[in-house]
Design goal:
homodimer, alpha+beta, Ribosomal Protein S5, domain 2, Alpha-Beta Plaits, seven-stranded mixed beta sheet, four-stranded antiparallel beta sheet, 36% helix
Chain lengths: 307, 307
């Protein structure tokens, strides 16, 4: 039986100013998925972790993504999936996107790589939709393309991979629940044109900063006048922690996706570790459980490790 | 007496989606300015065109810009300016910016190039402010830097020159009056977050498109869901003309600054000329006076032609 083992990484959507349009992949944490090609139309899901996610294909992120792909495959085929999730659901670092992106890349590999990356993104979005009830690619796109991506449009899909310089990423995941639906509900429906202009000036600056590999420009552009002021209230000690991370030398950072994880970008590993120390310090005092990762931007995205 | 002759080009602000943050310089039309260094604190303005612009330094764009520069010069110096404006005031292609940018670059040359480009932009903004009552660099920055610029912030000034591919520009200037103040008044104060996201996705796409020299991406990103729907009503037959220009092969385009000029970008000269023909056809039928220019993006900006 044809088998493949996949590592599917966490992703950070929005990147401060780029709400709903930008994201990047990181190396750690990453989910492990083993997939086997079946010779009948069936999706078998075996959870090897403790998250008890649903295993009925129609209610499951893996299933949603694979069913979308299988509609465009003529042969009688199916997949068995052994999933070991490491990216905690609800952490805000693309847990469901890693599932959806991982299985479509794995399935494509088992089928002889017949689909293009942007087709894989579209299939995976069907899976993501089951988890988030929204049609968006801000985690899926960087998970499949790797690196930093701009999603100019979700419909029709227009994904633009951006060059970027080496970047270290420190991520803290406070073990509190922030529902994506609530984090979206509290956003203003209307914003001032003035603030919107400030935001798109920074989006332009961030895109140029990545492409020019200009750390200072990246740093100056990591400002969010619209979303962060509202959502940061859901994250304990956000302002204090951010201020101290910047003092420790971080280029900038903010809420990962809709939270509760918070990320900071740094130019070098020493700074990223100093930022980790600051995050540890602020959170240890609060009595909230948390994990911190020090990692780097992942230019590969989903990876076939065996198969 | 030290003398210099300057060509100061027209500029196109906004570039469709990049309202208030982007702009580029073009080769035609351009103003001619002759400047002479005086040995006393005086600004003498001689208009050699028919526009009858004010000659009192405090009420004049040249004067406003030069006075700002002279405040940072210790010596007893002044300037005589012979101005031949070709860029019609009120045309929406940076007429006042060309005046302000031209004289500060000329003065800097006469003083042995002691100021940096971003300092020159700041001086010129004082001149631009006299004409437009606003503190902005979207025409000044590309006029002084040349090429395509992103203004990430006006205060503090943060100008980012962007790489770009060869681009032909067709500009039509209908001889109607659109007051900048009115064109700003009619804009909504509030916009939907959804539309703002669409706009900054396109700003990101346009920045990436220029830098990657990707004509298709530039074309897809030249969309404005916020400003054009409101301001285009001030320009006769805008929608019809735009539609026909796109059919003729233009990459895209829209209102230049706050209008009434309209520009279109093309990949090659033949297309830019076909676009010119379309503009001619649409406007000839309307009985509105107009000029059309076919030119290219100007990577130099203000140029010293003699001195």
């Amino acid at each position: 039986m044809k088998e493949v083992t996949i590592l599917s990484p966490a992703t950070i959507a929005n990147i401060v100013c780029g709400f709903d349009v930008m994201g990047f992949a990181i190396h750690q944490p990453a989910d492990k998925i083993v997939m086997r090609l079946l010779e009948k139309k069936e999706i078998r899901i075996i959870n090897k972790d403790g998250y008890n996610l649903p295993t009925e294909p129609e209610k499951n992120v893996f299933g949603g993504a694979l069913l979308a792909m299988m509609r465009e495959v003529k042969e009688e085929i199916g997949f068995e999936i052994e999933s070991t999730k490491v990216i905690k659901p609800g952490s805000g670092i693309g847990s469901s996107a890693a599932s959806a992106a991982g299985v479509v890349v794995g399935a494509n590999h088992l089928l002889g790589n017949r689909f293009l990356k942007n087709e894989l993104v579209r299939f995976a979005m069907h899976g993501e939709q089951i988890a988030s009830q929204a049609w968006h690619a801000d985690n899926i796109a960087p998970c499949i393309y790797g690196g930093v991506t701009l999603i100019r449009s979700n419909e029709p899909l227009d994904i633009i991979p951006l060059d970027f310089p080496p970047l270290y990423v420190t991520v803290i995941h406070p073990q509190i629940e922030v529902k994506t639906s609530y984090a979206r509900e509290i956003l203003p429906k209307q914003v001032s044109l003035k603030d919107a202009v400030t935001q798109w000036a920074n989006v332009g600056g961030l895109v140029a900063g990545f492409m020019k590999q200009d750390y200072d420009l990246i740093s100056r552009s990591l400002q969010d006048v619209l979303i962060e002021p509202v959502r940061s209230k859901l994250i304990p000690s956000f302002d204090k922690m951010k201020k101290r991370c910047l003092e420790a030398g971080a280029l900038g950072g903010g809420i990962s996706g809709s939270g509760p994880s918070v990320f900071m970008l740094s130019k070098d590993q020493a700074t990223a570790k100093a930022v980790e120390e600051v995050m540890n310090e602020v959170y240890r005092k609060m009595g909230v459980e948390f994990n911190v990762y020090v990692t780097t931007v992942n230019s590969k995205g989903v990876e076939i490790v065996n198969g």
